[in-house]
Amino acid sequence: MHRKFANLLILLLGLSLAGCSPSPSVEHFNKGVDYQEQGQLALAIEEYSKAIDLDPEAANAYSNRGTAYLMMGDLERAIIDYDQAIALDPEDADTYTNRGIVYDKKGDLERAITDYDRAIALDPEAAEAYFNRGIAFFVKNDLDRAIADFDQAIGINPQDTQSYTNRGYTYAAKGDFDRAIADFDQVIDINPQDTLAYYNRGRAYAELGEQEKAISDIERALELGLESCYEREAEELLAKLRQ
Question: How confident is the model at residue 147 (pLDDT cuts 50, 70, 90)?
């Protein structure tokens, strides 16, 4: 299950007192956003650092630089920046969500959940926080709470295929394959090209002994170009079902 970053990449429109152009700090911040959106993370970090040098109170710059570090896998620097961003702006739900992801990746699920809790308390519509907390509960094998969080994420964003997918996984882990299939159905309705949804639904049908439906779904997943990391497993399952 992949975690979801909260959306911190928002261009600022801050104006200098002398005129109508953005302040130098904001200009560097916005350049950082542009670089980050292009995947040029080192350049983004340079621009955020310049913004911070010019405005040490720029919570958004710390927050975005933390996300850039997180995307680069530098978890320690990410936490330092998120800590500073939260110290400057303790009401920003997105920063708590993203710091929660760092703790999650470090294996500190309790701190991760605490940060997701805080994000949700600040913003009850924080779909990413519910989604990520659901994953944390899944990892802790607290499956009912995981499902409750995926329910919330889906309620906020009913077109989010990842939340249906993860809830389907969780139902499957509970042995409730009918509900798992219903969730994979939803994914396919939203995106008929979602190869993993066909594969997951095929596996669920196989667990229920519905061999023909399982074969049909797994064949469809392979036809559509199932990710290579699942391809061998799918082919082996398909061969077994055809015996």
Answer: very high
